[in-house]
Specification:
It holds the Pfam family Glycos_transf_2. With 333 residues, the chain is α/β, with parallel strands linked by helices. It is built from twelve helices and 14 strands. β13, α12 and β14 form a beta-alpha-beta unit. The two termini are 42 Å apart.
Length: 333
């Protein structure tokens, strides 16, 4: 029996698919099955998949009409025979030792349930974007802790295609749920179920950045961002909040706008007291903009940090006045 099942959804990925498949087949750890699902591609993806399947009997091919990523992941998980599930994307590349290093860590740390890795970003984007996104993806995790605060506040800190996890915990959590940010939802549900998430401090994946990526596509009109904010609200509050909930948003820009829209929809009787912004004054969305220095004088129940550039400054200021992450604030972007 194979101890690992690598699952890779494919949708119109012919441009990068060969490199992704070959990086899995070239692993130093050999005992795995490789489930590749063609999710209704209209390009040459299925022909490329079948070409490799003829060469390597570890490949299991599923091909059908398009049903979306979450359906595809759950379908592959149900088919998988391995004790461990490995996520792989059709546009990324594994280093040859990836599976070996992850499975060895699992054998030595029986208490870990979900294991990610650091990544090396590459692709057709500027060097500045590569550095920025690599820094986001490569925040370190603490072993023996839930890492919930890191996952909520830094969102993209755990690269989904770097994950190896026990199939038993996916069965326990009943797989992925139908969110655009299905990975964030799974991590937070795992933590709530007292499961342990950790990340190796080694770059075992080349994580491709490009304009056709799922993250880019899902976030048109901020839909992906709004979905993630909703998931965080569900986790942090669990409907335990007063009707006269008053909040402020740190960041008077697109992130603040998306945050207000989701919070007002989720908490229909909530009230946005205003926005905090270091560089703006006046009003935003018909609410007053306050300076960071005035935050102590505002009456509120909670703060949502909705600025990426000013995130660390906002966290520092709120902690300085005695507020606690998650209890009193969290980052929505």
């Amino acid at each position: 029996m194979n101890s690992i099942s690598v699952i890779m959804p494919v949708y119109n990925s012919e441009k990068y698919l060969r490199n992704a498949i070959e990086s899995v087949l070239s692993q130093t750890y050999k005992n795995f099955e490789f489930i590749i699902t063609n999710d209704g591609s209209t390009d040459n993806s299925i022909n490329i998949i079948n070409e490799y399947a003829k060469l390597d009997d570890r490949i299991i091919v599923v091909s059908r009409k398009n049903r979306g990523l979450v359906y595809t992941l759950n379908e592959a998980i149900n088919l998988a025979k391995g004790e461990y599930i490995v996520r792989m994307d059709a546009d990324d590349i594994c280093i040859p030792e990836r599976l070996e290093k992850q499975i060895n860590f699992f054998k030595e740390h029986k208490d870990i349930d979900i294991l990610g890795t650091q990544v090396k970003t590459f692709g057709d984007v500027s060097p500045e974007i590569k550095i920025r996104d690599e820094n986001k993806l490569n925040r370190t995790f603490d072993i023996g802790k839930s890492n919930r605060e890191t996952i909520i506040n830094y969102w993209y800190c755990l690269a989904h295609p770097s994950i190896m996890l026990k199939k038993s915990i996916l069965n326990k959590l009943k797989g992925y749920r139908n969110f655009k940010s299905e990975d964030l939802d799974l991590w937070l549900r795992a933590i709530k179920a007292k499961l342990n998430i950790y990340k190796l401090n080694e770059k075992l994946i080349y994580f491709r950045l490009h304009d056709d990526s799922k993250t880019k596509v899902d976030n048109k009109n901020n839909e992906g961002l709004k979905d993630g904010i909703k998931i965080k609200l569900m986790d942090v509050f669990e409907n335990k909040i007063e009707d006269d909930f008053k909040y402020i948003i740190w960041g008077a820009s697109n992130g603040g706008k998306a945050t207000k829209e989701v919070v007002d929809k989720y908490f229909k009787k909530s009230k946005c007291v205003g926005f905090i912004d270091k560089f703006k004054a006046g009003e935003f969305l018909n609410r007053r903009i306050f300076s960071p220095e005035s935050v102590e004088n505002i009456e509120f129940d909670y703060v949502f940090i909705a600025t990426e550039p000013g995130k660390e400054e906002a966290i520092g200021k709120l902690k300085e006045i005695g507020l606690k992450s998650i209890d009193d604030f969290f980052c929505t972007v």
